Amino acid sequence: MLPKPPVPQPTTEKTTQLAGFHQPAENSHLTTDQGVGISQTENSLTAGVRGPTLLEDFHLREKIMRFDHERIPERVVHARGAGAHGTFQVYESLARYTTASFLTNPALITPVFVRFSTVVGSRGSADTVRDVRGFAAKFYTEAGNFDLVGNNMPVFFIQDGIKFPDLVHALKPDPRKEIPQASSAHDRFWDFISLMPETAHMVMWVMSDRGIPRSYRMMEGFGVHTFRLVNAEGMSHLVKFHWKPLLGMHGLAWEEAQQLAGKDADFHRRDLWDAIEAGNYPEYELGIQVVPEADVLKYGFDLLDPTKLLPEELVPVQRIGKLTLNSNPTNFFAETEQVAFCVANLVPGIDVTEDPLLQARLFSYLDTQITRLGGPNFAELPINRPLATVHNHQHDGFGRHGIPTGGANYHPNSIGGGFPKPASMADSFSHFRERINGSKVRERSESFSDHFSQARLFLDSLSEAERRHLTNALRFELSKVTLRPVRQRVVDEILAPIDYALALEIAEAVDVNRPDSRKERAKRSSMKTSPALSMVPIRQPTIATRRVAALVADGFQVSDLTAVRAGIEAGGATLELLAPTLSPITGDDGTVFTPTHSLQTTGSITFDAVLVPGGQPSIASLCLMSEAIRFMQDAYLHSKTIGLGRGAIPLFESAIHPTLRSRPTSMDGVIEATLPMKEFVANFIAMIAQHRHWSREA
Ligand code: HDE
């Protein structure tokens, strides 16, 4: 791993070029799109106050026309997203691998725009559905735009882009009735999966806790494909890109994710926005796994196969630089919606490989914008415009923004002085000079044929709780599949070849025949587990940016709150007061507090942990409130840390059934203030840092 030099503070300034339109000046007045002043926009122009509207009302017609055309087609996949501006800075020069200046000059601060997304849902769908998350980054480098259009999972469902339309058609809602929204738990998706064994590995990832992240700020990102880094000597290395979140990785509980989809469909979008507004800038380190060209088949699989990952234990991830998201978009549509990522946006020093999924993407992203952004000039939109100067002979088309000067719009020319001239080799992109020799075929390489070993490796690398969650996710999804033969085929053709025990468990849960035990086909490699695949070891012992609720009513013990608040805030988390109503409440020492939320409008699902300060009158009132009882039950069932101040135990006991409380692990992550306060606070904080206490579920 490269040593990390001190990282300069990120700037909070957005480049003005990216910021787009500004707030109108204070003395500005209302005009038409032509700049003609408008004195009122309350009433249409009519013949008499109660008469018909006149066609001559150009202000009304323009206003309605603009409104009628406000929508553009949503993205065919990844329609729902949230974006943020930031900066990237490399720790030390990677000139030994690449000529890309943003990776070789540690003094350079490169502006970046990132868009996170779900894949399957429409633009208005919920954030917390089970799905892959997109993690797309546009680097506005001095040598042109570089887009790293990745996901939060390192592999993909299919090996060849020609299957992408089939995959997406199967995943999206039924074309007859547009049901279900933003869900893979249906017949058509699993029908496709059951017939496509190459999807086995990715299915394991989507069913894992990675499919329901706690926050965009707490998930990894991956370039998925193998790319190339090319240095000044023209020498290429194969590379896998990673994003490592500095807050660690955390998932939601499945029930919580489902509740959130109804109660706060904007959960992830809001979390990202609020964190940036609060100055809690999300940070990720860019990582690379570098492999010599000659080692493309060295690891027992083909590095060109996007359904395979390169275990970090075999080739460690070098953390090479840091991305800091430090500014929210100024306008959602102009930036987050109009941003056009493209896998073919490469800069000198970074190149693609022959991964057949990647090759199809090189075309698709450019093509899709023609429909989505209404023509070929989308690169001129402020959010897509490179910081590097653009000179070429492309011209005209819908939505041209720039006004080209001069008449020499062709090359070669003499009347324009021959400009723009071809760039020098040093300043231009050169495709890696790879020697290709082959016959035209429509065939899958034999080196892509093992679909199950890495799925097995993933499964075997999970913690007990993670495996339980994955099994439960499969039970949930397949229980929603109405066609028994499809359920049977998933068990027989996908699960049994990966892990017979898993297949058996699911077969019983979804009422299909036991699979044939000879079906297990996953090769056991010398590597039994890859610890980096589990989310557990990657957790950071921090509570930074977590949200802790304090349930209080009149007469609560103020000293409990004060002691915990100091510790929580020192750790970078927030403590928010939840009371029966929004009216002020009075603590046991007479201090008056204004609650942050009313218990009637919020629930445990939007918090990471709960504190119940003591105080007999407060606890007695909360015990009578169904919202407070429900809050405690959710916090308990979703394995969150629960801190009980002095005398607060009756609320816990009213909420949690004695049979739940009597299990050996039932009090994991539940802490009472029977200890001296200092110890209680320290232990409470340490428990929140663990994120969840999944052992309680067992
Ligand atoms: Fe995409 N994908 N994709 N994809 N993808 C799009 O581009 C496509 C794939 C990913 O926030 C579309 O502008 C094909 C893998 C992200 O704007 C479209 C194939 C990975 C985003 C498209 C793939 C991704 C997209 C839809 C198989 C992870 C959202 C709108 C050959 C490495 C970017 C658009 C954003 C978006 C095509 C497979 C990630 C249609 C044909 C693998 C993060 O062009």
Quick structural summary:
The protein has helices spanning 16-19, 58-68, 164-171, 187-195, 200-207, 254-263, 267-277, 332-337, 356-372, 453-461, 464-479, 484-498, 500-509, 558-570, 616-623, 626-637, 649-655, 658-661, 677-689, and strands at residues 81-90, 110-118, 133-141, 144-151, 221-222, 227-230, 236-245, 283-292, 318-327, 350-351, 547-551, 574-579, 585-586, 592-593, 597-598, 609-612, 641-644, 670-672.
Give an overview in words.
The protein has 19 helices and 18 strands. The protein has 698 residues and is an alpha/beta fold. Helix 3 (164-171) runs antiparallel to helix 4, helix 5 (200-207) runs parallel beside helix 10 (453-461) and helix 15 packs parallel to helix 17 (649-655). The two termini are 38 Å apart. 43% of the residues are buried. Residues 75-78, 81, 115, 117, 134, 136, 149-151, 156, 161, 164, 224, 339-341, 357, 360-361, 364-365, 368 line the site of CIS-heme D hydroxychlorin gamma-spirolactone 17R, 18S.
